[in-house]
Amino acid sequence: MSLQDQKAPDFTLPRDGGETVTLSAIDGPVVLYFYPRDDTPGCTKEAVGFTEAVEDFASAGVTVLGVSRDTVAKHEKFRDKHGLKIALLADEDGSVCEDYGVWVEKKMYGKTSMGIERATFLIGADGTVKREWRKVKVPGHVDEVLEAARAL
């Protein structure tokens, strides 16, 4: 399911720190990245990578949002443990993951289960998905997203 060149599904989700975030209320482009779980090796590397580049994204006028099905309390522990500077949104019921097509069947060690596919969406200021990355591999990903964001 590709969302490229389509209107990004809108949402309002709670975030770390107790506020809520509504996608359509954000002024300017957004990097929306979905990740499986707080405090796992790949998810930590990705969140730290986006945090290290948060100033670069900000100077390009881009807001970075991370989404998983973890609770706000887990997000806050994850943020504090790793000094994260990006908003972490809690999609506990999985509806936003469904809307973006990232809640998928996964196979690991011969076992099948449902989970979040690591994916990133670059949403333009007009609210349309300008670029999407599916089945993301973490090394080099943040740089690639930043380059695409700067090109908007």
Automatic annotation (TrEMBL):
- Signal peptide from the UniProt entry: none
The residues covered by the Thioredoxin domain are 2-152
GO BP terms, alphabetized? cell redox homeostasis; cellular response to oxidative stress
InterPro entries (UniProt xref): AhpC/TSA (IPR000866), Peroxiredoxin_AhpC-typ (IPR024706), Peroxiredoxin_BCP/PrxQ (IPR050924), Thioredoxin-like_sf (IPR036249), Thioredoxin_domain (IPR013766)
Q: Where is the active site?
A: C43
* Gene3D superfamilies in alphabetical order: Glutaredoxin (3.40.30.10)
Q: Name one GO molecular function term.
A: thioredoxin peroxidase activity
A Pfam family it matches: AhpC-TSA
Q: Tell me the protein's name.
A: thioredoxin-dependent peroxiredoxin
